[in-house]
């Protein structure tokens, strides 16, 4: 149950961030809400998959608007502060589940990069075969239609998520659940 809540709040955070980036008038409260939503996701399931991806999106957007300057850190700082406050409060209120979560996730399967890739490729193929096939078709369609920006968006998301998973040595099939909505979007491009 906590995985559904964690994934929901992660996707809500991504939605609010994209809403902020695409709004004609920038509303900082959207960033505060996005950071708080990701903090709730962290509190529900200790999911931080979307954190580096959202941070990179905000940095890239700020870079396009202001160039390299201290101003480009403002959106990331607002988002990050909201995340840290909410996640921090949740960890302080209930520190034991957080400590157990950190201490119990050590695995021999994913010590090497090859073992990590092999484990998750087999798990994804075993549990989500049709979705994976349609997502690969969707990626091919995006490449064929020369929608490189969207393909880069999906690729960057998967790269950041897999980096976080490898960094924390996560080797359970359930850690693939937050990827399913994004794989579904890619599959939608393949079917459409």
What's the overall average pLDDT, rounded?
80
Strand content: under 5%
| Number of alpha- plus pi-helical segments | 9
According to DSSP, the number of beta strands is 0
* Poorly predicted residue ranges: none
* Integer-rounded radius of gyration: 17 Å
How would you describe the shape? globular
Structural class: mainly alpha
From the N-terminal CA to the C-terminal CA, the straight-line distance is: 31 Å
Q: How is the secondary structure organized here?
A:
Blueprint: H1 2-22, H2 28-45, H3 50-66, H4 74-93, H5 95-103, H6 113-127, H7 129-144, H8 148-167, H9 180-191
Helix pairs in contact: 1-2, 1-3, 2-4, 3-4, 4-5, 7-9
Structural account:
Helices cover 77% and strands 0% of the residues. The chain contains nine helices and no strands. It has helices at residues 2-22, 28-45, 50-66, 74-93, 95-103, 113-127, 129-144, 148-167, 180-191. The longest helix has 21 residues, at 2-22. The relative contact order is 0.12.
Summarize the structure.
The protein is mainly α and 192 residues long. It has 9 helices and no strands.
What are the main properties of this structure?
9 helices, mainly alpha, globular, 77% helix, 192 residues
């Amino acid at each position: 149950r906590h995985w559904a809540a964690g994934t929901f709040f992660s996707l809500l955070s991504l939605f609010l961030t994209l809403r902020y980036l695409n709004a004609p008038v920038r509303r900082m409260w959207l960033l505060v809400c996005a950071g708080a939503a990701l903090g709730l996701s962290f509190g529900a399931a200790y999911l931080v998959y979307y954190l580096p991806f959202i941070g990179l999106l905000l940095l890239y957007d700020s870079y396009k608007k202001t160039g390299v300057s201290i101003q480009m850190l403002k959106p990331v700082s607002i988002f990050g502060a909201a995340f840290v406050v909410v996640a921090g409060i949740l960890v302080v209120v209930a520190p034991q589940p957080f400590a157990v979560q950190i201490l119990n996730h050590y695995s021999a399967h994913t010590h090497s990069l090859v073992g990590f890739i092999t484990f998750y490729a087999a798990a994804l193929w075993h549990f989500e075969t049709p979705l994976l096939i349609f997502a690969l078709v969707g990626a091919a369609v995006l490449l064929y239609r020369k929608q490189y920006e969207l393909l880069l968006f999906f690729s960057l998301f998967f790269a950041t998520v897999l980096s976080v998973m490898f960094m924390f040595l996560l080797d359970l099939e359930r850690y693939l659940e937050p990827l399913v909505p994004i794989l579904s979007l890619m599959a939608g491009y393949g079917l459409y």
